[in-house]
Every structure is written in structure tokens, then in C-alpha cells.
Design goal:
By secondary structure, the chain is mainly α. It has helices at 3-26, 32-51, 61-72.
């Protein structure tokens, strides 16, 4: 799979799992599934960054997200 696609999916999973972690902690529960999802998202981002020549610059992230979203339409 393309590193850009995995990077964007990892970012999306990471962003979506943070509210689940906060919600579980605020209820006094252990955020097991949310933590596992956050770890998978982090692994996807790290894998994409290590397999992309030159990595990703902070300024390039919006362009990468736009490119991946355009490829799905």
C-alpha cells in the first residue's frame, strides 16, 4: 500500500481514537480498545514515514491529505 495512504489513515485513526480515550478515562474505565487503536495508528504513521523517501514535512501534511482524498473520488 502507498505510504501516503497509510499515513493519512493512521492520522485519521489517531484523531478519532483520542476522544474515545478521554471518554473512557472520564468514566473511570480502562481505555483498552482505544489505546490499541491509537497504537495501531501510531505504527501506521511511523511505517509510512520510514518508507517514504525524505519523510513528511509538517508543511506538506495538508497536501498529502488532499492528494489521498482526491485519489478516492
Amino acid at each position: 500500500m502507498d505510504p501516503d495512504t497509510l499515513f493519512v489513515i493512521g492520522l485519521g485513526l489517531g484523531v478519532l481514537s483520542i476522544p474515545a480515550v478521554v471518554s473512557a478515562i472520564s468514566k473511570g474505565e480502562r481505555p483498552r480498545i482505544a489505546t490499541i487503536t491509537l497504537m495501531i495508528a501510531g505504527a501506521m504513521v511511523v511505517w509510512a514515514m520510514s518508507n517514504k523517501p525524505g519523510g513528511y514535512a509538517i508543511e506538506a501534511i495538508p497536501a498529502v491529505v488532499a492528494k489521498v482524498l482526491r485519489s478516492f473520488t
